[in-house]
Specification:
Keywords: Cell outer membrane, Membrane, Receptor, Signal. The protein has about 950 residues and is mainly β. It is built from five helices and 53 strands. Among the domains are: about 25-115, Immunoglobulin-like; about 125-240, Ferric Hydroxamate Uptake Protein, Chain A, domain 1 (Beta Complex); about 285-310 and about 325-625, no CATH class.
Length: about 950
């Protein structure tokens, strides 16, 4: 049977099933209005089972007050109509005779009176809207016992959670998750969603959080952050709750993990801990600062908020992409404690401590095809790494309101990182005929400690005149590190002048850096909803770097001045600016201009040289936010920024950490200037549960900083940062989601496109390079009550790179990821879960073709009262695919990497849920009866 016939039969079967479903189900519709005949938008219509009041389905009225709920199977249902500030309608509705639809006409809701009955029935609608907040009632979306918040979020319409736990709400990425309005272990959303129990949550609130400055001044600056706030049930604010898990499997694989929480109105205490050797990280590992000394600066343009101290230089000047899965084998050990304390309405404490130990072993094979005007060649590398790190992190925030007009906020974070890294590699460069050009062996050992601390003190004063404020943010930070290392390399060169080079070196490096500064902001209302903001930012960074390299000659160590480096730098930053904003009912507009003046002065002590640069730039900006409604929004943003070269990029000192790839700075480097335009549109139809998010951007960079490359006759690469012509990056993405009600399913579609055009120098030849990427993802989820979940998804990307100097060297590769997830709950006490991933990587340029099928299965049995215990048998990587693959393109090469990964293992585990039910009324009825409860009021 051919594929077209099979597809036709599939759609015929689907149409038949749909036709049958439509003939056996009916539709309920109506129009909701208030007593003044005005339509009620976003009211919730909930259909309940007559026998036990469990949730059947629900809908939401549109802007005209209309609602329509289809695919009702029951002959009679209990209809509940809810809207904030209005009395609830609760009545029995029966299926119409000789018809598949029933229109109730106009239903009038009455406003609630001040006096309420002493005894009322509490109404809980699955979804409600409160101004700019969408609120999901968690009990309406059932999950299996011991499920975490991440499992709950996957069931909420308009919310997506990918395989890594990243969250999108109405198409936008969620960057912050709060618990009862308070931060949970800092700002990482996954810490809350992966470690809190779903059944502890009363409501999930989706909101666009305004900036700290806007919350303080009351002046909307247009900045938004998609945020989730988890409201806890009152039952879970009485004592401890959490869970403990222990498991052991084949090949001595083990897992220990636990969480314990005690929440109340004024205190939150949480403990998290884990230890395993199965590549699981319970806590997110941040990309910590690279302690290599020197000063790097990045200042974003226009508005009040300023970032200084980010990356200082680009590698290629245009974005590069890759596709990969988790690599290597890891042992993780971690624990943490979070304490939030409200001492009073005026004083709040937010604090957390983390310890994380990670042991990571990597075996890696890399194949790279290099493109050069003088001729192409291949690069091959086999490497091993053994990385060990210990990290301690402390975060402390104190908020105190002196009175109604004055407040201060102190923020402190500190961390200590201990690192021990051993690596070894064998490399070879060959021409396209397979002849050796050079080959080398290298071993490297690096170990040391790094320390970081930052403190900010924010002082704020609000004048009696609304909108008139002044705030000052004082900043102090320190970074310090001490590293030592040993390098041994043997390099063999072939061709007309064959030679062998042996490098045996030891090095020591000490880095010390301090930064301090102040940001001052003053706002003044101008009348007519217009406001003026005056801003001044000052920052100074000082650093001392002492790197000594010694050549080992027999038993002696000889100082190598050419490779050693001792310098100190002072980076000073001044930036005055002004913003004017206009806030209307539906939109706000902010326009700003800043003058950025920076100076960079350094002394190269070993060479008796100085490096000095001064830069001045005007940085305009504009931001507009237009709200068509509570669930429909358009944003436009224009910003400018300056990417200034770091001292490492400016100093003409050789870095030969990799003897076949040498780095040398460029004293004549100029800063890069970037214009960024971005537009976002977000819409969520509460009546039809259709979400649409669209985004487009353009980045235009003048004097872009890229890494020029030159290859000598021995195929040794020398890399130097240079300025090139303008680089352009254009991109866009779309996320569209909608339900398929006859199939109890939801469909999400997300295409994306990116195009980059830039210049680079290869062997002193300036070449224009164009990279285009077209891809996207599609996902369909089928849910049948709390018993069955099925998810199918695909994520595909096509990336091509074109060269002006030789179009025949153009690159093309594909990365594909197909996924199927199945969850089945049956007989009240059993659960089955399966996850199948099919990864495919291929390249038309190199004929690389690699496929990786991954299958995980688990079977659970729930025991003890209220299913507080879970015994689980898990099969991980059942097909025993113990490799990881990455494929990426750079300015003049395409590369494929194959890495070791964790193979097949079977594990038996037990999870015990602590204090899962503290409300004695919480166990009444079968699952689903939590939808309705009794409330007594005075």
């Amino acid at each position: 049977m051919n594929s077209k016939l099979s597809l036709s039969l599939f759609f015929l079967l689907l149409a038949g099933l749909n036709s049958y479903a439509q003939n056996t189900r009916w539709t309920l519709s109506g129009n909701l209005r208030d007593e003044n005949s005005q339509p009620l938008s976003s009211a919730t219509i909930t259909l309940l089972d007559l026998s036990d009041s469990t949730l059947l389905t629900f809908g939401v009225s549109n802007a005209k007050g209309e609602f329509s709920i289809s695919n009702i199977r029951e002959e009679a249902i209990l209809m509940q109509v809810s809207f904030m500030g209005f009395e609830t309608i609760l009545e029995k509705v029966s299926r119409p005779e000789n018809s598949q639809s029933l229109n109730l006409g106009v239903l009038t809701l009455k406003e609630k009176t001040a006096e309420m009955d002493e005894f009322t029935l509490e109404d809980i609608a699955p979804i409600t809207i409160k101004k700019d907040t969408i609120e999901y009632h968690a009990d309406a979306f059932k999950t299996q016992p011991n499920a975490n918040v991440e499992d709950l979020l996957k069931r909420l319409p308009g919310i997506e959670v990918d395989q890594e736990g990243n969250i999108k709400a109405q198409g936008e990425t969620v960057n912050r998750v709060l618990v009862d309005g308070k931060e949970f272990f800092g700002t990482d959303p996954k810490l809350a969603t992966k470690n809190l129990l779903a059944e502890a949550i009363s409501k999930v609130q989706i909101l666009d959080r305004k900036s700290e400055q806007a919350q303080f001044t009351g002046i909307d600056d247009g900045q938004r952050e998609k945020t989730i706030n988890l409201k806890l049930k009152e039952d879970f604010k009485k004592g401890f709750f959490g869970n403990l898990t222990g498991g052991y499997g084949t090949d001595n694989r083990y897992k220990l993990q636990g969480s314990l929480n005690r929440f109340s109105e004024d205190q939150q205490i949480s403990f998290l801990g884990l230890s395993n050797n199965i590549n699981e990280q319970g806590f997110s590992i941040d990309n910590y600062i690279n302690f290599q000394g020197g000063v790097e600066s990045f200042a974003s343009g226009g508005m009040v908020r300023v970032t200084v101290g980010g990356p200082g230089g680009g590698s290629s000047g245009i974005p590069l992409n890759s596709g990969q899965r988790l690599n290597g084998i890891m042992d993780s050990h971690a624990y943490g404690v979070n304490l939030n304390q409200d001492f009073s309405k005026k004083t709040q404490l937010r604090s957390s401590y983390f310890f994380n130990q990670l042991n990571h072993q990597i075996n890696q094979d890399t194949e790279r095809l290099n493109f050069f005007p003088s001729g192409d060649f291949t690069f091959g590398e086999k490497s091993i790494q053994d990385n060990q790190s210990n990290n301690h992190r402390i975060n402390l925030i104190v908020d105190h309101k002196l009175d109604s007009l004055n407040s201060f906020r102190s923020t402190t974070n500190a961390q200590i990182t201990q690192t021990n890294r051993q690596s070894g590699s064998e490399t070879a460069n060959r021409d396209l005929e397979g002849n050796l050009l050079n080959r080398g062996k290298r071993s490297n050992l690096t170990f040391g400690d790094a320390y970081q601390g930052n403190t900010e003190l924010l002082l704020r004063h609000r004048f009696s005149k609304p909108g008139k404020t002044i705030s000052a943010n004082l900043i102090f930070g320190i970074n310090a590190s001490e590293y030592a290392g040993i390098l041994y390399a043997e390099n063999e060169f072939f061709g007309e002048n064959p030679a062998t080079e042996i490098i045996h070196q030891e090095n020591k490096q000490k880095n010390h850096a301090w930064n301090y500064g102040a940001n001052i902001s003053y706002t003044e209302p101008l009348g007519g909803r217009k406001y003026l903001e005056l801003v001044y930012n000052f920052r100074q960074n000082r650093s001392d770097v002492d790197m000594e390299v010694f050549d080992r000659e027999g038993e002696d160590l000889v100082f190598n001045q050419n490779l050693s480096n001792k310098f100190n730098t002072i980076y000073t930053y001044h930036r005055p600016g002004a913003n004017i904003s206009y806030n209307a009912n539906k939109y706000n507009l902010v326009a700003g201009m800043a003058l950025q003046a920076t100076s960079l002065n350094g002394e190269l002590l070993l060479f008796d040289e100085t490096v000095s640069n001064n830069f001045q730039n005007l940085l305009p900006s504009m931001r507009m936010n237009y709200s068509f409604s509570n669930t429909k929004n358009l944003m436009f943003n224009y910003q400018t920024s300056v990417n200034e070269p770091s001292i490492e990029q400016l100093q003409p000192v050789i870095n030969n950490t990799d003897p076949l790839n040498i780095y040398v700075g460029n004293p004549g480097l100029r800063p890069a200037y970037t214009h960024r335009w971005q537009a976002n549109y977000n819409s969520f139809d509460m009546g039809k549960y259709i979400n649409l998010f669209a985004s487009a951007f353009v980045n235009y960079t003048e004097n872009a900083i890229v890494n020029s490359q030159s290859i000598d006759e021995r195929q040794v690469r020398t890399i130097t940062p240079v300025n090139v012509h303008n680089n352009v990056v254009i991109g866009g993405n779309l996320n569209f989601g909608f339900p398929i009600k006859p199939l109890n399913s939801r469909f999400n579609f997300g295409p994306n496109i990116n195009y980059s055009s830039g210049y680079n120098l290869i062997n002193e030849l300036e070449d224009q390079i164009q990279i285009s990427k077209l891809g996207g993802n599609v996902r369909c989820d089928f849910n049948w009550k709390e018993f069955l979940n099925l998810g199918l998804s695909a994520n595909i990307s096509r990336e091509s790179t074109g060269y002006a100097f030789n179009p025949q060297q153009n690159q093309l590769f594909f990365n594909q990821n197909y996924n199927a997830e199945l969850g089945l709950n049956f007989l009240l006490k059993y659960a089955f879960a399966g996850n199948f991933n099919y990864l495919k990587y291929n390249s038309s340029t190199t004929d690389f073709n690699e496929t990786i099928p991954l299958l995980n299965l688990s079977f659970s049995r729930f025991i003890l009262k209220n299913n507080m215990g879970e015994i689980k048998l898990t099969g991980n990587n059942i097909l025993n695919q113990n490799i990881g693959v990455a494929q990426r393109a750079d300015i003049n090469f395409i590369e494929q990497t194959v890495t070791n990964n964790l193979g097949r293992f079977i594990m038996l585990s037990f999870t015990y849920k602590l204090n899962s039910k503290l409300n004695p009324l919480g166990n009444m009825g079968r699952p689903g009866m939590g939808m309705r409860g009794m409330r007594f009021q005075n």
